[in-house]
């Protein structure tokens, strides 16, 4: 490994011991559970396993580079609350970060989670076995050889398993890399982390109004995330961003393919281009090119989140029109989502800092409150029939509603018990 990489890796290790990221306080676990993607259990059930894997089957999960534990705590809590069997194994080389994650788990009295201090580049030597699901969120883009580590992770997957990944994207991080370049000189990575942070804070206090970072609203969590947030944003010794085209090529080299990009609708440029001629042209393009156009047009994608599986192993999801299918809200109750619909029957949806109106059938207002994760599609149809919606109309309305809300990652299907 080149000396520069050794120096950067030493700086990276020092960063996460001095400023474990993200900055978390275990006492806060009594007040809230942080929710996000990837590694939301309902997302894993649907996007990775296609709502086909019984919930009674134990889930063996690895969080590769768990940091202070957001994804691991969320997944372990979801499993515990649902009384589902399985275990979440958390690996990180930072002792300080693991201690915070461990204390968070203890605050929640989680017994389905364990912690292993280790380096992902030496994953096979840790002897952890194989997994049904692997989370690697916000890690690969900091490594000297992301391809090698992703290949190691793919080798730890059980047949039919999948991963949840997050990497940085360049356009939504406009302004960050300019400041990182300046700080390479003003706060070299050979300095102690505390000195580097002091320099960064001095720059932020007097940053010119014309700096691109001032125009970018994607970094509230970093800029308000204490010392750890600011350090990770501006001083991380290695920070590689991927366009969606780069990311798909990265997956391909590891023998992987996306089961879903999050949220799928975010990568549909037709949502941002209402012009019929443009939509007609878009429809002729492969989905990969459409995703790249969406990224180019929006300009605010700061990350790419994806659920991925081995090439050729994407599962077939159940038919949402099957009367026995059970729709389930990903997080927001259906009644609350229905209240967010505007009088023109659009649902304003935020893709980061961009809010887009999503058209829904007017009948979606009545369907959403009926989605409770227990009622089947057939039972919802029966209720709608008492309100004057015949079977043919219901199928049309439900197909349109489910497709739109699934692509927003808001309504999914429940797996069997």
Describe the structure.
It is built from 17 helices and eleven strands. Strands 3-2-1-4-5-7-6 form a seven-stranded mixed sheet, sandwiched between helices. A two-stranded antiparallel ribbon has the order 8-11. With 417 residues, the chain is an alpha/beta fold. The chain has helices spanning 3-18, 41-48, 70-81, 95-107, 146-155, 176-186, 193-205, 212-215, 220-223, 226-234, 244-253, 276-282, 287-298, 334-339, 364-367, 377-385, 391-407, and strands at residues 59-64, 86-92, 113-117, 131-137, 157-168, 256-262, 303-310, 327-329, 346-351, 354-359, 411-413. The protein folds into two domains: 3-171 and 239-310, Vaccinia Virus protein VP39 (Rossmann fold, 3-Layer(aba) Sandwich); 327-413, no CATH class. The mean pLDDT is 96. InterPro entries: Methyltransf_25 (IPR041698), SAM-dependent_MTases_sf (IPR029063).
